[in-house]
């Protein structure tokens, strides 16, 4: 009974967050661009299935900074802090007790390959945000990986319903090579915006560039605008 009450509160808080950012989310290019670049049937947001400059792949290439953290589930933790009302540190059991979401979405890498219709299981970033409740001053998140990687997102992008922290892909636990035990996915943006081996979500009062953004990659990363570099 207590567990159901906790989950109900998370869902209620998520709906309040959605209402708070709904207009901003609706105006982002990945759902509102009148002239998106790409080809194929429309995806669920009305964008061409394959963004401009991308090639479909069945394989899942491995890209990282040259270091693959090996985190045992008993040691894994996710810190959620910054401009929030109730910062938390989640253990694996805490994370798995949150509402779990099954979704199928596409994965677009800035290096020009796209992996289509990947089945995922994970937790919406919006549900994690609902758990901590961002303050009115929060505008962005900076996501940190166990490999010291960082990447930034505006809240109107981070709170979209298909932005997930995934632990399962293709019906199997997420492999270490691909960021397991947990990585973030951002189907509406190039995939570098989703941190592998995620360890911290930091809510910020202003934008702060991440690892690749400081090295010439785009701050916004919209695939249907070929928005790869700054």
Automatic annotation (TrEMBL):
InterPro entries: OxRdtase_Mopterin-bd_dom, OxRdtase_Mopterin-bd_sf. It holds the Pfam family Oxidored_molyb. Residues 69-212 form the Oxidoreductase molybdopterin-binding domain. Residues 23-51 are annotated as: Disordered. PANTHER family: OXIDOREDUCTASE MOLYBDOPTERIN-BINDING DOMAIN-CONTAINING PROTEIN (PTHR43032:SF4), PROTEIN-METHIONINE-SULFOXIDE REDUCTASE (PTHR43032). This is Oxidoreductase. It comes from Dyadobacter beijingensis.
């Amino acid at each position: 009974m207590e567990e159901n009450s906790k989950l109900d509160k998370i869902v209620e808080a998520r709906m309040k967050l959605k209402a708070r950012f709904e207009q901003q989310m609706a105006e982002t290019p990945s759902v509102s661009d009148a002239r998106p670049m790409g080809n194929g049937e429309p995806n669920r947001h009305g964008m061409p299935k394959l963004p401009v400059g991308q090639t479909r792949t069945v394989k899942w290439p491995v890209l990282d900074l040259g270091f693959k953290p090996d985190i045992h589930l008993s040691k894994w933790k996710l810190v959620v802090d910054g401009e929030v009302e109730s910062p938390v540190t989640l253990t694996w059991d805490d994370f798995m007790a949150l509402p779990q979401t099954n979704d199928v979405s596409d994965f677009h890498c800035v290096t020009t390959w796209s992996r289509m219709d990947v089945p995922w299981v994970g937790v919406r970033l919006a549900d994690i945000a609902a758990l901590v409740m961002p303050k009115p001053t929060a505008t962005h998140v900076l996501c940190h990986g166990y490999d010291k990687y960082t990447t930034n997102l505006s809240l109107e992008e981070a709170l979209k319903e298909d932005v997930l922290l995934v632990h399962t892909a293709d019906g199997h636990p997420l492999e270490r090579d691909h960021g397991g035990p947990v990585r973030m996915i951002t189907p509406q943006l190039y995939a570098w915006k989703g941190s592998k081996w995620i360890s911290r979500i930091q809510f910020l009062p202003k934008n702060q560039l991440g690892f690749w953004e400081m090295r010439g990659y785009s701050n916004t990363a919209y695939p249907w605008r070929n928005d790869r570099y700054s």
